[in-house]
Each structure stands twice: as structure tokens, then as C-alpha cells.
């Protein structure tokens, strides 16, 4: 096992990548870069056939951390933008199974949908809550969410920010397997084992063919998402959305 900051990696035929920022497992650019670097290394070493992405603690990932009320918690003044790094998760060659317990919210939902498959439990909660914060969706959700659940359901989630539980997620195709809470990670590993039993060169080739169109669309969407998020972060609605979230109350938006 290697540990890079808040990411623990267990290499092998089935690699385990565990985000270690409990309870909410918020991400930032360095964490996403560490995740992309780890997947690249695993793909290059020749032993790994499948990766399982999981998180320590109560939740899978609650996205970026707005709890301190920062206007721009994930915007960098130096180094690459978050989304310039995130595209690497879509373009790397290894199949990935995400084990989702608790919340996959905002960018955390985007991270879950960067994986090929999602294993979840009834207690899991999924939400694209961006509009409730006063800004635009990100992390490629403009492409990956409608690809998983269809355009109309994606629009409803994006417009309303509604939360859905694991059972509804399984029903609409947002997660692929639904298991009891205590079995989420083991079930993800079992699914990874089913994939690993196939010829690894064939799996990578099939994945490249099937994912190439989506990765190209995600790359373009990330540019649009980045521009719109930066524009909307200058609005009064963004400040109100973040403030209301921190105060655990309904936001009152003014359209300014």
C-alpha cells in the first residue's frame, strides 16, 4: 500500500484507491491529481486490471468544500484548474468501479460518474445540487449524468438539486448494483473481479472504444462548465446559495 496525502492505494490485480478525508471526503485539485496519477501508474505497471474507487468513513464524496463560505474554494491562482486535471480520470485506460456509501453530492456525484460502474446501498444519497448553490454543474456531469439516466431525469436533477436514495438510483440507472450498506465495498470488489477475469488487453480495448466518444464530449463540456461556474461565482445568488447551505436553510435567490 502507498499513501499520497489523503489517498491510499493498494496495488494488485484489483487495485483499491481509498480517499481518506472522512467524514465528507471533500476533494480539491491536489486530491484529484493524486487520483489521476495513481491510476496512470497502475495502468503502466501491467499488473492491475481493474481499480475500485472508495472512501473512508460515512460518505463517498460531498464534492468541493463550501462549508467555510469561501467564494471560490476550488479555484487556483497557480497550477492547473481542477477540471484540467479531472479530464484525466475520463481518459485513463483502466476500468473503475466506484463503491458509494452515504453521500455523492455535487462534484462527488461527478467523481462517481467518472467511474465505469457504481455499487451503492439504499442509504446512499445522490444529488447534483449546483443550482441550489447558485451556479453551474461541473465535473463533466453535463455529459455523464444524461448518459447514465437519460436527458429528462438529468434535467430534473440539475434544475431542482433533488436528492435521490440508493434504491431510486438503482431503478433509474444511476448505480449498477444495490447491496446492504456493510457490503458496498466487497460487492464493488466482486464486480471488479468479474471484469478482471476477462482478457485484460481486450477489456482495455473495449473500454477505449466505448468511452472515447464520452471522453471527448466531457473534455468539451468541462470547458463550458468551467467558464459558467466562474461567471456565476460573481453573482449575489452564489453568495446566497453558499450562505444558505452553511446555515442549513432554504436559499432566497434574487436572480442577480
Descriptive overview:
The chain has helices spanning 29-45, 82-91, 107-114, 130-133, 141-149, 151-160, 166-172, 184-196, 200-232, 236-247; strands at residues 2-4, 7-10, 14-19, 50-55, 96-100, 103-105, 117-120, 125-127, 163-165, 177-178. With 256 residues, it is of the alpha/beta class. The chain has a single domain (2-183), classed as 2-enoyl-CoA Hydratase, Chain A, domain 1. The strands form two sheets. Strands 1-2-3-4-5-7-10 form a seven-stranded mixed β-sheet, sandwiched between helices. A three-stranded mixed β-sheet has the order 6-8-9. β3 (14-19), α1 (29-45) and β4 (50-55) form a beta-alpha-beta unit. α1 (29-45) runs parallel beside α2 (82-91) and α5 packs across α6. The radius of gyration is 17 Å and the shape is globular. The protein starts with a strand and ends in a 9-residue tail after the last helix. The relative contact order is 0.14. The model is unreliable at 69-75 (pLDDT under 50).
